[in-house]
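Translate sequence into structure tokens.
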Amino acid sequence: MRSRDRQRIQDIVEAFSEMEDEITKEKRAMERIWSRREKLIERVKHGTVVMYSELEGIMGPEIPALPALEMPYALEGGDEDPVQ
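Result follows.
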């Protein structure tokens, strides 16, 4: 194999290696971002359920029923504060 050909192949391999490293770094960064967003969504869900429950306690039967806020979240452990 000629030196020039070997250098070309080496350049290609190095470029692929650099791309792989960049993708790995981007993936880790996106996973951190997504994790943070998931935690924020859980905080909003928890806060909404708590607020609805408090209003339900104040207003009683006058507050419209919102099934999406009642049972499913409680089954997921809605009593706990999901994120600080």
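Note: The chain has one domain: 3-75.
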